Amino acid sequence: MKKATVRRTMPAGVAKVLKRLHYPLDMILLCVRWYGAYPPSLRQLEEMMAERGLEVDHSSVHRWVIKLVPVFEKAFRRHKRPVGKSWRMDETYVKVRGQWKYLYRAVDKADHTVDFLLRGHRDQAAARRYFEKAIDRNGASETVTMDKSGANLAALQAINAERETPIKVRQVKYLNNIVEQDHRAIKRRIRSMMGFKDFRCARIILSGIETMHMIKKGQMMDSGVTRTVAAQFYSLVV
């Protein structure tokens, strides 16, 4: 199928983003997928494309990621499987411009990612914003398991004060091992980046990594058709 024909079959938002990107479509999508799913750095992706006879600067790959990841994440949200009602919530550290920031995350008891949120501070306000986002997108959980963080507990108690049916809170550290183990998949991917230079870019790139991680974990509805992880990713836009 010709590139122009492919682009006409895309959602309007995707086609608009790709309109000014004058490179082969399959090359753009491959770079964005690899950057979200695997450890190569931008410069390594540049070298890998060169080995395939395709000349692209690493800065172009970065630009594609920043432009396309929000589109992919939005499309994935429409196909994301519902998560369970028992959540394990925790936050992990991410370095942005030499300073530690905080990635709030939760998984259900089946290890399916509930949601994620990058914040500049680790406090009650940040934790509450995370819970509000997760509940808005996934519905309220019945139980949230967390560590002994006072800020996370206070945030959920504040939300419970406004709810007719409160969410049960369990502060049992060993029960949170499942989310702490899941952090490792995200940390492995960002280790090669040696920190982020900009908060906005960090937020977008992390959402791409999280989206690919959820697809790998089988969290995308398949309509009864078995597809590879790569095919599921491409189906979001083509």
List keywords for this structure.
single chain; 238 residues; alpha/beta; Nucleotidyltransferase, domain 5; 2 domains; five-stranded mixed beta sheet; 15% strand; disordered N terminus
Can you characterise this structure?
The chain is 51% helix and 15% strand. With 238 residues, the chain is α/β, with parallel strands linked by helices. It has two domains: 3-79 and 220-235, no CATH class; 86-200, 2-Layer Sandwich (Nucleotidyltransferase, domain 5), CATH 3.30.420.10. A five-stranded mixed sheet has the order 3-2-1-4-5, with helices on both faces. The longest helix is centred in the first third of the chain and has 20 residues, at 58-77. The radius of gyration is 19 Å and the shape is globular. Mean pLDDT is 89; it is low at 1-6.
Task: Provide a compact summary of the structure.
The protein is an alpha/beta fold and 238 residues long. The chain has helices spanning 3-8, 12-18, 25-37, 42-51, 58-77, 124-138, 150-160, 177-191, 199-216, 229-235, and strands spanning 86-96, 99-108, 113-119, 143-146, 168-171. It has 2 domains: 3-79 and 220-235, no CATH class; 86-200, Ribonuclease H-like superfamily/Ribonuclease H (Nucleotidyltransferase, domain 5, 2-Layer Sandwich), CATH 3.30.420.10.
